[in-house]
Specification:
This protein is mainly alpha-helical and 591 residues long. Helices cover 84% and strands 3% of the residues.
């Protein structure tokens, strides 16, 4: 009663205590409730004297799933007690060693224990010496013990292999997730760089537009100045007309002087008309140039809009690629889970097939037990030969297993080398990408310098325009005093306007060059995005190759297991056919 709830005692020795019915019942209760005892020694007691108490003890043993070693030597157990033990061993799944030496089990008890060993697959050691059990049954029990040991070793090996494979799969998953996260980080960084470049390009475009607006304002001011000069010319024409009237009044007094003045006035009129024609021509040329400049500005705005659309498309492509990568990763994980489920189902099917084969073998052995008792003495030599063949077959199987394990190690090493090479290739690609990024940054800095230079030029032009305004004011003052100096000043203004127009055209060519550089940078960005896509596709191909290798390895393992099962079934069928077809079987049937 004290040990039923105890959880620390692992070994219990009750040797030589003359335990009988009450003690057997108490021990059965203990085995039902205790979950910590692994070793129980009951040597030199009398547990098998009373059948009811020993049956209760056997029921407790059948319900226990924690006991591993049980010593029942010298307990007066008969063939009925052995039958109860056989029923308990069919239910028990933890006992590994059972010592029944020096009891009264006999032939019937030995058969019952041999029959229970077909369903019990955990018992590794069963001692039956000193129980009047025939030698053929003892050898059969030893063979069953060997079979259980081999089976447990195979199961432990398969479990270890499955555990190792699961670890490798988890490590591969972790590596792939790390690589995927690294790629996502690089893509995010590139997105941020693209957004920054887009912002900077938009700022540049806005600055260029502001410069163009300033140039438009300068042109409008120049147009206003030209209008003022035209008004001054009209005033001069009115003055000339007044002088003509004065000359007509003085004709009566001095005809000769009038004729001279008339000729001089005609010459002046012709010169004024020529000057007016030249001014009109210059104005028409300036208006045409203004129209060309407006058209160019419209074209530049259209190009900016196209570039913005292209940037938006690039962003959409990046989002689509990230979504596709996530979907592919989810699909790969689902495939791995499906393969695990298939592997588990195959293992369960193999276990069910083995159970069916064992049941079939038990039926055949029960049918042939009666005929085998007389034949076993004559077939000992034959059995020894067969056991040697079995040992050879086991050695061959072990060698094949060693070869298979060596092949698996080679395949793993090759896979690791391939992964290392691929990682080095990817690192080289990343290094090249960083170099290209640095080159793009250098180009960007150069473009910044060019923009600063253009801004300085625009400031110089604005200062120059202010100087021109002052000069025009001085010219207006001089026009009131001297008409002849006005003509020379107008020519100077035309020359200066032509120089300014040339400067503006040079600045526009520089702006076109800057826009071409921006387009080249956008092409480089597109190339970088395409390279990233190719790298992602390569990664997906590597993942698919690894999955195929895992499938091939699982198929090889299942094939090896099927071959081992077939070899065992072939050997068992050969033994049964040889025993049934031997002359001993015919002799016993005649008797």
């Amino acid at each position: 009663h004290g040990l039923c709830s105890n959880t620390t005692v692992k070994s219990l020795d009750l040797k030589g205590n003359n335990l009988r019915t009450v003690g057997a019942e108490a021990l059965g209760k203990l085995l039902r409730q205790n979950k910590s005892i692994r070793r129980l020694i009951l040597e030199w007691n009398s547990l098998g004297v009373w059948e009811e108490g020993f049956s209760f003890f056997c029921q407790g043993l059948g319900a226990n799933n924690f006991l591993q070693r049980l010593d029942l030597r010298n307990n007066q157990i008969n063939h009925q007690g052995a039958g109860e033990l056989a029923v308990a061993l069919k239910q028990n799944a933890s006992l590994q060693e059972l010592d029944l030496r020096w009891n009264n089990i006999g032939l019937l008890g030995g058969r019952a224990l041999l029959n229970c060993l077909h369903s019990n697959k955990t018992l590794k050691r069963l001692e039956l010496a000193g129980n009047n059990v025939p030698s053929d049954i003892l050898k059969a029990v030893e063979q069953a013990m060997d079979h259980n040991q081999d089976r447990q070793t195979i199961l432990s090996e398969t479990q270890n292999r499955a555990y190792i494979l699961s670890k490798e799969v988890l490590s591969l998953k972790d590596e792939k997730t790390k690589q995927f996260l690294d790629l996502m980080d690089t893509i995010d960084k590139q997105r941020e760089e693209i957004a920054r470049n887009g912002r900077m390009s938009a700022a540049r475009v806005s600055q260029l537009q502001e410069a163009l607006d300033e140039q438009h304002s300068i042109m409008n001011s120049l147009k206003a100045k030209l209008q003022m000069t035209e008004a001054a010319l009209a005033l001069s024409e009115q003055k000339v007309h007044n002088l003509g009237e004065l000359l007509n009044a003085t004709k009566q007094e001095q005809t000769s002087m009038a004729e001279r003045h008339f000729t001089e006035l005609q010459q002046q009129k012709q010169e004024g008309a020529d000057r007016e024609g030249r001014l009109l021509r210059d104005l028409s040329a300036a208006s045409e140039k203004n129209l060309l400049l407006r058209n160019q500005v419209d074209e530049l705005e259209k190009k900016c809009k196209v570039q913005q659309d292209q940037l938006f498309q690039v962003k959409q492509d990046l989002t689509n690629t990230t979504a596709e990568l996530k979907l592919r990763a989810v699909q790969a994980e689902e495939r791995l889970e499906m393969e695990k489920r298939r592997f588990k189902q195959s293992l369960e099917d193999m276990e069910s097939l083995r159970v069916k084969e064992v049941d079939h073998m038990t039926q055949h052995i029960e049918a042939s037990e009666r005929s085998m008792q007389d034949r076993i003495q004559r077939l000992e030599a034959i059995r020894i030969a067969l056991e040697e063949e079995l040992s050879q077959v086991k050695a061959a199987a072990l060698t094949e297993r060693g070869q298979a394990e060596e092949e698996l190690i080679k395949v793993r090493n090759q896979a690791r080398l391939e992964e290392q090479q691929r990682l080095e290739h990817l690192e080289e690609k990343l290094r090249l990408m960083t170099e290209s990024r640095d080159e793009a940054q250098n180009c960007y800095l150069k473009q910044k310098q060019m923009v600063a230079e253009t801004q300085a030029k625009v400031n110089q032009l604005s200062l120059h325009a202010d100087g021109l305004r002052r000069r025009l004011e001085e010219l207006q003052q001089d026009l009131n005093s001297k008409e002849e100096e006005k003509v020379t000043e107008v020519n100077k203004v035309k020359v200066e306007l032509q120089e300014q127009i040339g400067h503006l055209q040079a600045e526009r060519t520089a702006q076109d060059g800057l826009r071409e550089k921006i387009a080249a940078l956008e092409r480089q960005l597109k190339a970088l995005s395409s390279n990233h896509r190719e790298a992602l596709l390569d990664k997906e191909g590597e993942i698919s190759m690894l999955l195929e290798k895992l499938r091939m390895k699982e198929a090889d393992i299942s094939r090896m297991r099927e071959e081992e099962a077939q070899r065992a079934s072939f050997l068992q069928n050969a033994i049964m056919a040889y025993v049934q077809g031997s002359p001993l079987g015919t002799h016993s049937s005649r008797k």
